[in-house]
Amino acid sequence: MDAIQVALLTLAALFVGMLVPVMFQLWAALREVRTELHEVRGRIEPLIASAERTTQLTNAITTAAIAGVRAFRAAERERPPASPQPEGPQ
After folding, report:
1. Distance CA 68, CA 88 (A)
2. Who's near 1: CB < 8 A, 6+ residues apart?
3. CA–CA separation, 4 and 71 (whole Å)
4. Whole-angstrom Cα distance, residue 43 to residue 50?
5. What is the DSSP track for 1-16?
6. What does DSSP assign to residue 80?
7. What whole-number distance in Å separates Cα of residue 89 and Cα of residue 46?
8. What DSSP state is assigned to residue 32?
9. What tens-digit pLDDT sequence spans the chain (90 residues)?
10. Alpha-carbon Rg of the chain, whole angstroms?
11. CA-CA distance, 39 to 36, in Å (whole number)?
């Protein structure tokens, strides 16, 4: 084995020696993130369902209000104009 092969083997061992702890730290961090996301998801799901129900209720109220205004305007257009009232006491 010549000096270049020894140097390359030493560099490879050094690289692997540094890479293994970094990979383990990355794996541990990603595992922790996955656990936290699972817990947060359990808390967010009910909030999303509640927001969807609120949105549906708001849409229903808005639709009813718009229909009421349209019906009122249609009734106003169909009503004959009021005759002018004389001013002052009679």
Report:
1. 36
2. 9
3. 92
4. 12
5. --HHHHHHHHHHHHHH
6. P
7. 66
8. H
9. 799 888 888 888 888 888 888 899 999 999 999 999 999 998 999 999 999 999 999 999 999 999 999 999 999 888 877 776 767 665
10. 38
11. 5
Structure tokens, 35: 């656990």
Phi/psi of residue 83, nearest 5 degrees: -75, 145
Q: How many residues does the chain have?
A: 90
- Indicate yes or no: pTM above 0.70: no
Closest CA to 70 of 80, 60, 82, 62: 62
The values of phi and psi at residue 85, to 5°, are: -90, 135
> Which two three-digit tokens encode residue 44?
């967010």
